[in-house]
Amino acid sequence: MHILMGALSDANFRFAGPKVCGLVGANGSGKTTVLLSLLGLIKPDAGSVTVLGRDTRSSPTSELARQVGYVFQNPDHQLFADSVWDEAAFAPRNFGLWDEPAATRIEQLLDRCGLNDRRADHPYRLSYGEKRRLNLVSALGHDPALILLDEPSNGLDVMATRSLREIILKLKDTGRCVLFSSHVMQEVAALCDDICIIANGQVAIDDSIDGIRQRTGCDDIEDAFVKAIHMVEPE
What we know:
Blueprint: E1 2-5, E2 8-12, E3 19-24, H1 31-38, E4 46-48, E5 50-51, E6 54-55, H2 61-64, E7 68-71, H3 84-94, H4 100-112, H5 128-140, E8 146-150, H6 158-173, E9 177-182, H7 185-191, E10 194-199, E11 202-208, H8 209-216, H9 221-231
Parallel strand pairs: 3-9, 3-10, 7-8, 8-9
Antiparallel strand pairs: 1-2, 1-4, 5-6, 10-11
Helix pairs in contact: 3-4, 3-5, 8-9
């Protein structure tokens, strides 16, 4: 992936599954821009973005969405059905993938996310944390190969965050690639195989946790993050 666009001056990196990858940076560093470009909602001004063998500039977003699950940072941006169940089932129905395994998968996801008893409720009756969990269920309903999560633990309590981590690791175990953005280094260190640190619109470091520690000379992961940012700060 090589991108040149307004929020990113030169982002060049590659990731593939089964793996959990973290996209880390301060607010405004370009994390969401990267995720939206992978879904094809933002096109690069130069360079290219290839997702599952498809160039996002020539592939319709509707085709990419069949293989990509996306959770937006704001939960209200992807809630539009009249019930929790219909919201969770929307993607497989919309893509013509509705069958018994899809229904079973959604039942299991709702149960794991603590939403089975809310299935008849309107999504806007849910709390912020419950909406976040419903976003995750709806993003996984069509069994995508690539999962993109924009700061998915925001607004979640301790138990919901723990459940989210378990789901992410299970996705990796079943051969999926998960890329999620965060500014919480401890969360990223606990989950990720690789971490891409973005600062000033550039990739500061793209490596494993051990590789980042070695390249920055810092054992503490937060210290390593700060050191990496300083590497690309303007003079």
